[in-house]
């Protein structure tokens, strides 16, 4: 008989639920024999669904069960909010209940993080309301830019999740008052490769440990792995063996101490005779030390020459979450260095890191090596939960097939969010492009792409294969009163990153009342770069924006030389420079803009004047460490001004006489600005950058004063001649 027959009365419904709960617990036992986990989709009226999940929670003795949701709605205690999901990383739970039907909604990043904490034989229960995906949930409030209320947003993302769960044949379906659908478990074949290392759990891990212990000078090692492959444990095993070899000091770093807790746990278990002097410091009986340093402290010691140099070791965990500029700096300082990162993780994809950092490695250490850990440790291959989470969150979105420019005509076309949501194959390829072009792409970015208000897409495709993609967002259009409040720091509506920043930091009310289009992301297939595809996308989109009456077109990005050159070459001009380094890139953020009509030209001219006025003082103080190449490019974007007779004489006196350069600094600044508009050969270009760093940032040419003065005068001569 159908399940609904047994649910006609409360007593019958309770008996049915108890029977289903017992069957589900038995199913978990069978999963454990295979070292697998699974997702349980529990949908229905929220309160009844919670009670059903609570019955499952209370019926068995689960290992460290975890309930995630709003504490006021949870039938169990304690309850963890979705925002704190990352605090559970490194922990193991046999049962995790994610309440996506309540006041918090579904946080995609939390779902990705928590899935990795479910141990073999465990269940990830996701509670959703009936007809899930028909309307937004409260978590949409996090990206509902002003003036859109979150309740009005589209739900392409949630509808896609619901559709995939309905079509999945590897998950458990458990509806309130309905049937319990348990998928058949196939027979699991054990085909793991043999290995000889008793400390390691897989052949992959053993190979990684061997490579780490045998690090060669100037031959960095890059280890990539999906979650649950024992990457951090491999680092811990290698640390113990390096300490055994009497390496005096092994330094490890990661975005936060919690990321290397499993590393230190492995060290303690393999070397119990050692002492953990503090959470981030371990002493071997032979006097060798293992030391954790956060990225900022490590960088400071490297710059002070207190760390690095001959014989030093550095192991970097979760490298994709650390700015590339810092990684490159450490690469130069440590002769023996390894970078390990999660390819598909809660921090965002490490695939973009792996592809982009390869360029730095090829340039600084062409003999670098790469290893990938593929065999799971926390669960077995073929795990149903890993497969469905990767599919739901597109954690393994693949790159499209590259199409050479001779194979087909590249055509740019606009694409609506609704169209993209209905083409799963195209969505995966576009998301794959975005992932490989950016250091961090988190699960929630997919939701922003499909449902973000004011979001538009444009792509260039060949034979249905996207080769380049542009994602933009609408900004500005505020009324005068709100713009005034934002400029005074009294209001901060959600979103409108570029327009609000210019109003708040540059005082431009007009930047908020005008309508903008901002580039959120732009990506080109790695094998199709430098063919003008990104230029074509931007050109077509700016034409479209101008036809719609928008006044300005802009972008914001890390102030890196190649990126800045790209945007300046397209006619964009800098309008603001951040005064602190961005967490994601380790670089100072720069905002650039281009006018689309007369209104935009007037606003842009005012923004340029403000930028030109503030840049010299910023370089002298807050931006004293901005790279000289970037400084030179920014100066070239300022209006050209010839040297006065007085300035020319001062420059001549510094270059060919003995005038103190410090007393002619303003004239040398004028020389640097004027020279930035001239074509310079390679030698003169270097002299220009060095003189710019001295004149505007007080960066010396050399440590010794006499040598610094000699080189400064030579650089001045080169620019004069």
CATH superfamily of the largest domain: Gcn5-related N-acetyltransferase (GNAT)
CATH topology of the largest domain: Aminopeptidase
Fraction of residues in helices? 40-55%
* Chain-averaged pLDDT: 92
Low-pLDDT runs: 1-7
Q: Which sheet architecture does the biggest sheet show?
A: 8 strands, mixed
Instruction: Indicate the CATH architecture of the largest domain.
Output: 3-Layer(aba) Sandwich
Number of domains: 4
Shape: globular
Essential attributes:
721 residues; alpha/beta; Rossmann fold; Aminopeptidase; 4 domains; eight-stranded mixed β-sheet; seven-stranded mixed β-sheet; disordered N terminus
Textual characterization of the structure:
With about 725 residues, the chain is α/β, with parallel strands linked by helices. The protein has 4 domains: about 5-180, Rossmann fold (3-Layer(aba) Sandwich), CATH 3.40.50; about 205-375, Rossmann fold, CATH 3.40.50.300; about 410-635, Aminopeptidase, CATH 3.40.630.30; about 645-720, no CATH class. Helix 2 crosses helix 3 (about 45-60) and helix 23 packs across helix 24 (about 665-675). Helices cover about 40% and strands about 20% of the residues. It is globular and about 100 Å long. Helix 4 links the parallel strand 3 (about 95-100) and strand 4 (about 120-130). Strands 9-10-11-8-12-13-7-14 form an 8-stranded mixed β-sheet, covered by helices on one side. The protein has a 7-stranded mixed β-sheet with strand order 15-16-17-18-19-21-20, sandwiched between helices. The protein contains 26 helices and 21 strands. It starts with a helix and ends with a helix.
């Amino acid at each position: 008989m159908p399940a609904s027959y047994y649910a006609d009365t409360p007593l019958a419904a309770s008996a049915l639920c108890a029977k289903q709960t017992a069957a589900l617990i038995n199913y978990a036992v069978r999963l454990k024999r295979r070292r697998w986990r699974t997702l349980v989709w529990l949908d229905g009226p929220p309160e009844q669904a919670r009670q059903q999940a609570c019955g499952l929670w209370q019926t068995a003795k689960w290992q460290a069960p975890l309930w995630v949701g709003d504490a006021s709605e949870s039938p169990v205690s304690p309850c963890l909010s979705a925002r704190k999901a990352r605090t559970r990383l490194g922990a193991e739970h046999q049962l995790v209940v994610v309440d996506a039907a309540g006041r918090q909604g579904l946080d995609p990043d939390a779902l990705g993080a928590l899935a990795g904490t479910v141990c073999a034989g465990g269940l990830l229960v996701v509670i959703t309301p009936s007809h899930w995906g028909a309307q937004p949930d409260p978590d949409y409030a996090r990206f509902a830019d002003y003036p859109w209320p979150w309740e009005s947003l589209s739900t392409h993302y949630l509808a896609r999740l619901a559709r995939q769960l309905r079509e999945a044949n590897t998950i458990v379906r458990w509806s309130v008052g309905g049937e319990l659908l348990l998928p058949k478990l196939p027979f699991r074949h054990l085909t793991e490769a043999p290995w000889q290392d008793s400390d390691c759990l897989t052949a992959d891990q053993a190979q990684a440990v061997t490579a780490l212990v045998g690090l060669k000078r100037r031959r960095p090692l890059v280890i990539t792995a999906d979650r649950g492959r024992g990457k951090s444990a491999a680092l811990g095993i290698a640390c113990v063996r390096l300490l055994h070899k009497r390496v005096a000091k092994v330094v490890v770093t990661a975005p936060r101490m919690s990321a290397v807790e499993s590393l230190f746990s492995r060290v303690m278990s393999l070397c119990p005779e050692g002492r953990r002097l503090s959470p981030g410091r371990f002493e071997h009986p032979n006097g060798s030390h293992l030391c954790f340093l956060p990225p900022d402290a490590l960088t400071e010691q490297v710059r002070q020459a207190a760390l690095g140099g001959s014989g030093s070791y550095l192991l970097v965990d979760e490298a994709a979450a650390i700015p590339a500029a810092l990684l490159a700096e450490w690469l130069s300082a440590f002769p023996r260095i390894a970078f390990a990162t999660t390819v598909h993780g809660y921090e965002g994809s490490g695939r973009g890191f792996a592809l982009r950092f390869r360029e730095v490695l090829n340039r600084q250490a062409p003999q670098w090596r790469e290893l990938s850990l593929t065999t799971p440790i926390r669960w077995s291959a073929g795990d149903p939960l890993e497969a469905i989470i990767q599919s739901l969150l597109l954690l393994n979105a693949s790159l499209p097939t590259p199409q050479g420019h001779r194979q087909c005509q590249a055509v740019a076309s606009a694409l609506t969010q609704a169209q993209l949501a209905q083409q799963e194959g195209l969505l995966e390829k576009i998301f794959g492009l975005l992932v490989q072009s950016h250091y961090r792409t988190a699960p929630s970015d997919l939701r922003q792409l499909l449902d973000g208000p004011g979001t538009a897409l444009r792509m260039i495709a060949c034979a249905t294969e996207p080769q380049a993609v542009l994602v933009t967002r609408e900004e500005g259009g505020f009324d005068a009163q709100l713009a005034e409040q934002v400029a005074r720091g009294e209001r901060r509506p959600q979103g409108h990153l570029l327009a609000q920043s210019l109003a708040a930091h540059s005082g431009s009310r007009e930047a908020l009342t005008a309508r903008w289009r901002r580039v959120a992301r732009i990506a080109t297939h790695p094998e199709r770069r430098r063919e003008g595809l990104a230029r074509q996308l931007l050109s077509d989109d700016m034409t479209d924006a101008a036809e719609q009456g928008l006044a300005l077109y802009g972008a914001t990005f890390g102030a890196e030389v190649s990126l800045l050159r790209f945007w300046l070459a397209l006619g964009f001009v800098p309008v603001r420079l951040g005064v602190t380094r961005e967490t994601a890139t380790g670089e100072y953020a720069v905002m650039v803009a281009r006018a689309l009509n007369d209104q935009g030209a007037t606003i842009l001219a005012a923004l340029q004047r403000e930028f030109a006025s503030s840049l010299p003082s910023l370089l002298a103080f807050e931006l004293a460490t901005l790279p000289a190449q970037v400084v030179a490019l920014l100066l070239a974007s300022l209006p050209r001004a010839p040297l006065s007779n007085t300035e020319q004489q001062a420059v001549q006196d510094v270059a060919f006489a003995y005038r103190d350069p410090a007393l002619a600094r303003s004239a040398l600044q004028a020389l640097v600005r004027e020279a930035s508009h001239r074509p310079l050969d390679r030698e003169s270009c270097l002299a220009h950058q060095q003189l710019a760093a001295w004149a505007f940032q007080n960066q010396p040419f050399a440590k010794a004063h006499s040598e610094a003065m000699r080189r400064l005068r030579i650089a001045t001569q080169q620019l004069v001649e």
